[in-house]
UniProtKB/TrEMBL annotation:
NCBIfam families listed in its UniProt record: hybrid_clust (TIGR01703), PRK05290.1 (NF003658)
InterPro entries xref list: HCP/CODH (IPR004137), Hydroxylam_reduct (IPR010048), Prismane-like_a/b-sand (IPR016099), Prismane-like_sf (IPR011254), Prismane_a-bundle (IPR016100)
Originating species: Anaeramoeba flamelloides
Annotated PANTHER family: HYDROXYLAMINE REDUCTASE
Coiled-coil annotated residue ranges, if any: none
Keywords: Cytoplasm, Iron, Iron-sulfur, Metal-binding, Oxidoreductase
Keyword Oxidoreductase: yes
The protein, known as: Hydroxylamine reductase
Keyword Nucleotide-binding (UniProt): no
Amino acid sequence: MLSHLNTFFPRQSNFRIQYNFSKMFCFQCEQTMDGKGCTVKGKCGKSAEVSALQDLLVAQLKHLNSIVHHAKENDVKPVTTYSDHFNLEGLFATLTNVNFDEKRFQKYLEKGEKLIEFYLKNGGEKLKSVLHENGIQTADFSYSKPLKDLIKTGKEYQLDLTEEKRPVIFTKELIMYGLKGGAAYLDHARLLGYEDTSLYHYLSESLQKLSLPVSEFTLESLLEFALQTGNWNLSCMELLNRANTESYGHPEITTVSTTPVDGKCILVSGHDLRDLKLLLEQTEGKGVNVYTHGEMLPGNAYPELKKYSHLKGNYGGAWQDQVKEFSKFPGPILMTTNCLIPPPKNYSKRVFTRSSVGFSNLKHIENDDFSEIIKMAKKQKGFKNTKKLALKDIIVGFGMNQTLALADLIIDAVKEGAIKHFFLIGGCDGAEKERNYFEKLAEKTPKDTVILTLACGKYRFNKKDLGVIEFKGNKIPRVLDVGQCNDAYSAIQIALALANAFDTDVNSLPLSFAVSWFEQKAVSILLTLLHLGIKNIFLGPALPAFLEPSVLDVLVKLFGIRPIGDVDEDLKLMLKK
């Protein structure tokens, strides 16, 4: 598929950024320092010590899966799914704004070492011999040392930024971040009882492959690998979509209140619908109301969740405003996944974490028992005197099934000129002022166009009155909220259905993509879009620091990917389709 890529590779890169660091290096998210990398402390709030432990955990996962790879090739029995589950847990913990707890990473490393020892014991001398031949360590591991020694060892696994190696090293990181995002989706599906061994196998083999030295790769082979990872992530999102919809029903068009009501309350943030369901079950009839926050907003549209009368709506907006919003919320907060900002003391005692989320001074809920957070909610003041409030509602629930049920109406509206263009404006939100671009773009889209949106980027405009399109007695909302970031799967299926209806491909539709990215799940979605051949994506607020210019040059020439610029000029380009 990419055999012609070498035509586009520049002979010499003009990439001359100087990386000076001694404490840490991380550039896996959009907010990385100066667009280069965090070298003293992560802008996300993680310490250099946590960064080192994350680097060591990723190195351990590569080590483990190299052993698993050769164990499978040599028919070592048993090959256990425990390592597959550990891959998900470990990678998820290293996502941006998930886990800041040094001791939790120490436990992950101890667990990983036990899995390595399990395979070595079962493989015997035959497996050890094969591993030695391939240069894979079988003794004297560095994973069960005291914490300070683990941190010191982790610093040895910082990226090698030797200039001539950067294009390959950076592209390997692009793939790793795509794997992290897909692993998060697989972990959500696993907790609902949905698993696919073929997807686990791809992840394991990919981690093994990424353990190989730079000399084993070409840019061409790595870009092929990246697109394959995009295809894998499409299947990960499909599995999670099936898990969510079969567990909770297909999302329905729902008006969500953002006006709180008097009473005791708990706020649920993150992405995990299972945790929301468990909390609703355990708070039913106990006089405690539940509110969603951030990426949990779409939970209000699922039939098996919205049926609970004490799910009262949504409070607040995107993750970056949580310090202000959590400070004012009059009850405890449940953080189910990212994005957690290190909490200040004024509310840290009210924050509880789940699954892969961790912070050293926060209470972590194990074994699906929410009694402690419910007990705290009853002791907090809760909302009072809310009758005077009248905040704007939000309409959600335009997932794949709901939107495709309206397909005939939408297709007729396009054919008769009532809808002239579609935009997908969504993705991660963040604090940078450059993200105002997406708000302004939504506001400036013509009145005869429709916006599909998803993930927390929607908060830039989902309370604005952008109107409706009146057609044959129907009112089609101009903003269709497809759901969470993983519901990019739904958005893709909607686009494919439209393309099929008009007997064309997605790139030929009057459809433009403006994608805001922040962390690794957005990277996995971007790789999926590229795998599908989606072209002319406007990406912002800044291009990833790990896209080395020679690689970016290829993506620009093959896919027309471009950074966001002036809103008016970009809008003109989009409307030319």
